[in-house]
Amino acid sequence: MEEKLAKLKSLLAEIADLGATSALLNWDQLVNMPAGAAEDRGEQIATIEQILHAKSTSDEIGNLLEDLTQTTKQMDADSDYARLIKVAKHNYDKATKVSAEFVSEFARVSTVAQSVWEKSRAESDFSIFQPYLEQLIGLRQQYADFFKPWDHVYDPLLDDYEPGMKTADVQAIFNALRPKQVELIKAIAEKPQVEKSFLFLEYPEKAQLDFGVEVISKFGYDWNHGRQDKSVHPFTTGFGLNDVRITTRFNTKFLPTAMFGTMHECGHALYELGIAKKYNRTPLGAGASMAVHESQSRLWENLVGRSRAFWKHFYPRLQELFPSQLGNVTAEMFYKAVNAVEPSLIRVEADEATYNLHIMLRLEMEIALMEGSLKAKDAPEAWNAKFKDYLGIVPPDNAQGVLQDVHWSFGGFGYFPTYALGNLVSAQLWERMEQDIPDVEAQVENANFAVILNWLRENVHVYGAKFEPQELVQKVTGSKITPEPFMRYLDKKFKDIYSL
Amino acid sequence: MEEKLAKLKSLLAEIADLGATSALLNWDQLVNMPAGAAEDRGEQIATIEQILHAKSTSDEIGNLLEDLTQTTKQMDADSDYARLIKVAKHNYDKATKVSAEFVSEFARVSTVAQSVWEKSRAESDFSIFQPYLEQLIGLRQQYADFFKPWDHVYDPLLDDYEPGMKTADVQAIFNALRPKQVELIKAIAEKPQVEKSFLFLEYPEKAQLDFGVEVISKFGYDWNHGRQDKSVHPFTTGFGLNDVRITTRFNTKFLPTAMFGTMHECGHALYELGIAKKYNRTPLGAGASMAVHESQSRLWENLVGRSRAFWKHFYPRLQELFPSQLGNVTAEMFYKAVNAVEPSLIRVEADEATYNLHIMLRLEMEIALMEGSLKAKDAPEAWNAKFKDYLGIVPPDNAQGVLQDVHWSFGGFGYFPTYALGNLVSAQLWERMEQDIPDVEAQVENANFAVILNWLRENVHVYGAKFEPQELVQKVTGSKITPEPFMRYLDKKFKDIYSL
After folding, report:
1. Which of the two ends of chain B, N or C, has the fewest CB atoms closer than 10 A to its terminal CB?
2. Strands across the sheet with B244-248, in order?
3. Which of A24, A231, A245 to mutate to test the interface with B (most CBs of B within 10 A)?
4. A94 and A79 in one domain?
5. What is the tens place of the pLDDT at every residue in B231-287?
6. A285 and A322 in contact (C-beta within 8 Å)?
7. CB contact under 8 A, B224 and A34
8. Which 8-state DSSP code applies to residue B285?
9. Which residues of chain A are within 8 Å of residue B39 when distances are taken between CB atoms?
10. Broadest EC class (chains A, B) (predicted)?
11. How many secondary structure helices (H) and strands (E) does chain A include?
12. Range of the domain at B397
């Protein structure tokens, strides 16, 4: 068995290296690659992904996992060894249940669909994208069928991003959350808006960059194992556990974009850099799920970065960098401005109080599309109706409505709910952290982020993908994913800001 | 056969993609990678190289090449098809003749030897490196044995860099060249030195970068298929034929480093970007050899970039960028300064008249080491004696002598002669070009480099690796590689500069 385990580990390491290599090809494409190389890069990524798929679904690895799974049965189910085999087996089973023909067809359609979606959005013409959306829904339904039996057609999709999570769980959570969020937003709407026009002045990029670097260096981002670049859409990516990079987008006419974007991506990076190094080059060397990942980015962006304590510390420095823009703005005014609540059209620009409603709308539509109760052709109308219902406004066109997100164009149904779940988990973790570190607010005010980072490392990061997301949240907070802490957080924060 | 050819092409494309991916992992390591990721990156590169080796030596590809070689026999031997099969077969045969154990052992020793060499050079202590040099010589002798029978033990090594070239050919060329170069240098040494102290003033990096970008943009470097970054040692690398990148090193206390380095690397990049796109993702989509590659970098760096005509055009712009440093320096003074001849210790800093002597010394030592007539322990003494003989000076220590180059530490015996051969080929091509474009000097003076680039593309670049280097040079210039044009070029240039 020793020998089989060693062989398995070497195969898993090879798979991890191929995954890291594919990630580098993608990162380079988005950060460095000259435009004229796009076609070749597509071929290179396809070649690596094909080899990766073949290695991930080989009979050799399947047989080893079969044999080694037997040996874990008399063992502590929470041991690293048992969990490694379990996660590897889960990945293997998912990969092998899907036919090679399907994988190839799905790759083909989703590649084309992404460029069609770009055109469709640019022209704000849904009819261009509609036939591709129909195809992608059909393909994702086929995908779900590979995993029958299930309770709900959406379950296998969700499981790709949130291992072990069921559609019914998410629906229950969102159903409890929705009325409370809607109520809060209504209450805020009756109050005078906060002044935020100074956020829209001219903010030179270099000073924005410098400020971001200072903040995330204080957060504890390790530049010996990371770097920051510019890209059209900000993202975080890792090539193993010792090289986790972030990208940032700058908007010289809106200060928050790069500032909170940098903190957000840094939160993702701190997570991956905090995973136990012993899991490097194994399937455990990754985040537990997209929601847990998002809980980390949101915690640093919002619970820390949009807190009054944070700005007490950092605002003087920001004023120093932007004296003409912020010279007459107080720290308190700035704090309120970056927390202004206002129903808006675009998810990625939404504030903390309205963000989850954007997600709920998408989840409900995805479920209806997958169930077949909503047809692709009716998606724009359904979108606008729900938008009016939840946020009180209607998109003026489809580019700012149903076509705004890239996710559906790559067939990523199942992805959206993780954003809202991440918000909920961030608040659950923060409440638990406040019990362990009662003066956490004072620590933030002193920019002593090490206590927070260490707590997150010990309680969350270090485990990597060893535990499923619900297990991990239960283990740390004593409860599965639940909306109450997040609502308590929102209520407290916005009652204060808006004198509700 | 159609089907077999299609299968072969798809396997070769996969191999090309893996090669491009490995190159990206290396480029990123040298340009972007945070230091703390070195170990993981080593694993990633090893994994990709292992897969690449397995795919390159598979029975499947061997059988296809065997069958398809038969079909080329009734065919035009210079057709793309016949040449593709020939080059692919040559690569396959070379790769499969070497045992897997050897490949693994050589990789292990040369990886360690490189870091040992770094230490050895840093401490200028040859004894640290000596045992590794001995091992590497032994391994390269073993490597040669895989290719028996040969005329000379050095032949298979040379063939890795110069397909089809023999040790005796190189020796004959160098034997004809050496006395002429020595004679020229002696004549120059008797003349007053040219003034060049102004090259050693403070030259800010940004203006150096800007000048370099302007020059290579004029050369025709296509930024839609390339980019420029900084690295410790300048290099050029490509990921397919549509993405060829260069790197530059800046020395703010010596202007020529980045200036000529940028032109040099651009010359390499223009070559790869000029290869017929139909050869992309095939073994023909590469330079013909290292010498032909070097002929391109040297042509742009020296024949163009160190010409009087070039500086007639560009010097006013350079003065504009560096008014305090060059305000009192005339174009003619500058031209002479960047062409100053002076025997010096370090190859990479050597001028055009002395450079080849550095190479000849290395070739003679490599041959003696491989033959066994020189022992590794006696290398420093042999180096210094030859140095005195050819260049009239003796290195004060081994760091500036036998330990200066990285090549031996990775076992790269056979590589050095390509540098000098490249110089010779650059002059042969230039003479031929002067016949086709009689006003080429005027074109340079007008910065109309398109005529030069187009000539090189049509006559050299477009063929990629279709022809062996000697075939290609013969085809273009009517003669194999020969030293006369280079000596005519040196004589004419330096007789003028030094009034010989």
Report:
1. N
2. B228-230, B244-248, B236-238
3. A24
4. yes
5. 988 999 999 999 999 999 999 999 999 999 999 999 999 999 999 999 999 999 999
6. no
7. yes
8. S
9. 242
10. hydrolase
11. 21, 3
12. 136-500
